[in-house]
Design goal:
elongated, alpha+beta, about 260 residues, four-stranded mixed β-sheet, single chain
Length: about 260
């Protein structure tokens, strides 16, 4: 193969880059999108393994060099305008995304906004470890923490649904549901008041145990609001979706939206 000839036909942008789409060679699913410069594309064709160019690190990036999730390239295609590359690849480890999912495209637009629809196959910290030169792993840490929080809330939501049908003597939550909405709202009110008192008494210089009082009261309040949502068969995820929807809006815009 005459490397100079086929590479010359690719239209790299002003930065000398071309977008590359990695697609599963059997299922056709798009797994990720990255950038390639001329050297990365040439190495990908030579090695039959995906090599990209990291703009944040300004260097070549051999996919899998940290995670071990290499990509074997079965086919390279160029689009009609010669400015987009498609790689037909086999994803080793079954994980292309730094969040531990098969694909980077794990969020789907729904009437409630963007919702995560793909399960995390592996904890990112188990893939990359604590130390990494890849800036993507900085975002990974936040993503991992968010995932764990969502799992806790999801578990609580499922527990509420189960407790609604349970024997009142079997658990505290089942007893609350048996006593009805007024009792649940009474508990929400009590925990709200106790949270306010704990906040008023909060002292930055106090002992750890005293500081924990506020944390405990907030946890009680959140817990009982989840019980309340469960009474109305409302998924906790709906609240998370609403909070996510508000991100990026100024307070005035958000307040104006609620008034209409």
């Amino acid at each position: 193969m005459n490397n100079a000839q086929w590479l010359d036909e690719v239209k790299f942008n002003e930065q000398g880059l071309v977008p590359a789409i990695a697609q599963h060679h059997q299922t056709g699913r798009v797994l990720m999108v990255a950038w390639m410069n001329l050297e990365a594309l040439a190495l990908t064709a030579e090695k039959n393994q995906a090599v990209y160019f990291s703009r944040s690190r300004n260097k070549l990036w051999h996919k899998g060099e940290e995670s071990g999730h290499f990509q074997t390239v079965h086919e390279i295609r160029l689009d009609c305008d010669a400015d987009v590359i498609v790689l037909q690849i086999e994803q080793h480890g079954g994980i292309a995304c730094h969040t531990g999912r098969e694909s980077c495209f794990y969020r789907k637009l729904t009437p409630n906004g963007w919702e995560i629809v793909d399960a995390q196959l592996k904890d990112p910290s188990a893939i990359y470890g604590e130390k990494s030169a890849n800036p993507h792993t900085f975002a990974m840490e936040a993503s991992t923490a968010q995932s764990e929080q969502v799992e806790v809330l999801s578990y609580l939501g499922q527990m509420m649904a189960e407790r609604k049908q349970a024997d009142p003597d079997s658990s505290y939550v089942a007893k609350l549901y048996h006593k009805g909405l007024n009792k649940i709202l009474e508990k929400v009110g009590e925990e709200s008041f106790e949270t306010v008192l704990a906040a008023k008494d909060f002292d930055q210089n106090a002992s750890a145990d005293h500081k924990n009082d506020l944390i405990y009261e907030v946890a009680d309040l959140w817990f009982h609001t989840i019980v309340m949502l469960g009474y109305f068969d409302l998924d906790v995820q709906l609240v998370l979706n609403e909070l996510a929807r508000r991100q990026g809006l100024s307070g005035l815009v958000e307040k104006a939206n609620r008034q209409h």
